[in-house]
User: Fold these one by one.
Assistant:
Number 1:
Amino acid sequence: MNPKNPKFDPNRRRFLGACCAAVSATGMLSTLAQLRMMGAVASPSNGPSVPARAGALPPDYKALVCLFLAGGNDANNMIVPFDTNGYSAYASAAGRGAIALPRTQLLGITPKTTDGREWALHSSLNADVAGTNTTGLKSLFDEGKMALLGNVGTLVVPTTKAQYTARSVPLPPQLFSHNDQQVEWQSSVPDKPFSTGWGGRVADLVDAMNTNSSVSMAISLNGQNSFQVGKKVVQFAVNPGGAISLSGSSTSATSAAGLRTRAQNDLLAGPNSNLFEAAFAGLTSNAISDSAMLSSILSGNPPFTTTFSGTNLGQQLRTIARLIAAAPQLGVKRQIFFARIGGWDLHDAQLGAHSNLFADVSRNVSALHRTMVEIGAADQVTTFTASDFGRTYNTNGDGSDHGWGSNHFIVGGAVKGGEIYGKMADLTIRGPDDTGTRGSWIPTTSVDEYGATLATWFGVSATDLPVVFPNIGRFATRNLGFI
């Protein structure tokens, strides 16, 4: 199933569900330990502090932006063989067939190193926002601000075709299931039941750098997710247009909405000996306060002129840019954001839909980067993609089916771009990287290695990396070198 972008209905139930997204994602407060943690977070001593004075971003500020391509991106058409023999095999009936892209429309790239093959990008990956005279992702690759990472996926241990076929090593459970693989990507621990996401574990470790924060360092622009679930840091959700607020509320002392709001606040502030009710009241009060504070910060004009598109993704990334620019006011030196764009589960009619999706991503990820350049924060913000899984190399008609390994990109001023990292799959049906007969690639780089590289840049020490990625010791490297 392809996850839909939630529509933000600003009533009380939606408000609490969004603002307390991590509560729902961890099982609706199913354990006493979680309740005690939530109660501590909600206590008055941990309430919102006075925002720091606005100003330029601190030199030690950093942000990670996870862009989740929900539904499983067909990255076989994101990075395409461009040499004569490679393209011929790609476009053949035994290769991509009806979903092969015309060679004349591909955007050739020249990575700094080569495995002997030539590569190109999908033509939509240089789309920009109309009328802005900017350029898209392909230009960022050429400028050295975007890196590509080949054949990444969920792995329990390094796995060869022989091991996969013999089932002689543990494999990620429910390997081709959307829901399971989304959770396993976002947790990076496929061999254990879900408890926290790797973004949440990173946040738990580095949150001490945010000494005067007035809102959570983990902010979702697309509802609840597994990636940002931590043990200490609770993810906070805002909608693509800004903070989520309660409908029917008011600061008026005499209106019905104002009286209702005052009565609600009195109920939330009242003493309560019940652990669950006290935690719920504290979290709700903090969510209301945080929402009001964010609304105040975001109510003015944005401190930049870069244009984003009017799509849902464009507005998600625009709001992320505004929240980054507001970091001094929020009192944070570390932020982790989650954005999501759906529509990638293309079992049919793939070519046109895929082109539109890539154009949307190119326009708005490049706009986010150029905004960071504009405010002098390009080296401090890194955007990276994730997705359920890749897709089969051969077609089911005019679409593709669920696969495994996939290709991804990373954008930012600190990125060592203009290069393909990891190892691109051998694109041979029934070949050494194929799980069977469809071109479902066995990953040659694990999510652990991908995430550990980003976490190291973000400030997680070598000693603490196994806390974030418990399985990292099973893989070849902790740093893939792309940043």
Note: The chain has a mean pLDDT of 85.
Number 2:
Amino acid sequence: MATLKAIRRRVASVRNIQQITKAMKMVSAARLRRAQEAAFAVRPYAEKLEAVLQNLATQGQALAHPLLIAREEKNIDLLLVTSDRGLCGGFNANLIRAAEGFIREHAGQSVTLALVGRRGYDHFKRRSVPLAEHHINLFGRLTPALAHEIGSRMSQRLIKGQSDSAYVLYARFRSTLVQVLTLDRILPIVAKERSGTQAAVEYLYEPQPQELLESLLARYVDMLIYRAMVESVASEHGARMTAMENATNNAVDMIGRLTLEMNRARQAGITRELLEIVSTSEALKG
């Protein structure tokens, strides 16, 4: 059995850890509220813009553009959005595992990674996977300007024939406890099959259709990437909040077990001292 002094030192250490995890949970809860509002605000705009682009994609003959042309996937770009910090449970590990699964599924093709977040970069920089670009030490400050920068490079790679498609892998925020791994295809934009009751929407264009299409395509790509970023930030804070809450509860349980062990050690020490006193007293009487 550990000594009483060692147990007390361990209890004090666990209490310090409990204070840290409790504080981190409160910080993540405050940041989650803002990140969640940002994610929910982006969704309606992104969904409506996607609906417009889907309608335009069905008019492939009338509106031709390299970003609307599906081709055989030989070279694939994958944007992986992770976090810069750890202590968020299996958030980053699940994303990295999904990215590795995507690479294995496309073993016959060339997959080039674009990484947002230090955790993903630290993992893949030591592996034989081509890296197009990486953005680290952002600490949740993911801006539309960064999304536009990444989207422009991905679009140019596809237009120049350096890639045939582009995907983004991120964690979609559903709740504090649930973050859904999501793989979205960014480029090329391919029309989805419509049900029999749905019909394509006819638009009136101002200015010229081709000019408007160029602008909408750029906005669409930027919005998909930015939505993935804000969803990932909200998911990160939700995962960290849950992980820190579990760590705090575990610390409480451990303090309870250590306190019980400490009381047993103290009682054993008192009993031993009493036995020594009684034994000494009996020896003196004899």
Note: The mean pLDDT is 87.
Number 3:
Amino acid sequence: MRLLSTIPFSKNVIAVLIGLASALMAPVASAYDWTDGFDLSSKSGDRWSLIASPYTYHFRPSDDHKTVWLVGAERERANGSIAGAAFFSNSFGQDSGYFFPWGQMYRGVLGQPQMYAQWTAGILYGYRGKYQHKVPANYEGFSPAIVPALGWEFDSNQRVQVNLLGLNAVMFQFTQPFK
């Protein structure tokens, strides 16, 4: 991972990228069905997948940081909406969870049929005690979260993606559909 440590990450660069992504997604978000993630009924075209992350890269490593891992499940509707839940160990070794009833996948990014962008939004739980201020708007361990991602889908529908975790880290994720 020596190569990653040589990349000059800057809060300003990341903030500009997040701002551009927000501006581009604003028209889409206004048409989004915000109730779909709470609908647990199965619909034609639904695809369920296991998600896992074995590694997270922190932009500013700390002696307090522990190994981060994640496992979970997500459902993608035929219209690209995403919902799911994940269990993970956060950057400080605390058991944590992320419930994301909202999200959307956009395929064919940059003219590449296998490249996609997605976002998920929901509730994060787990940053407690002396680490409660490591995530914004945390109350009793609960905080809102938005996770943008960029990924690649292989012919087998398996995916690899990079999730942006605020201004702090990127998480590398694998997605395996149920058969």
Note: Strands lie at 47-58, 69-76, 82-89, 95-107, 115-125, 142-153, 159-165, 169-177.
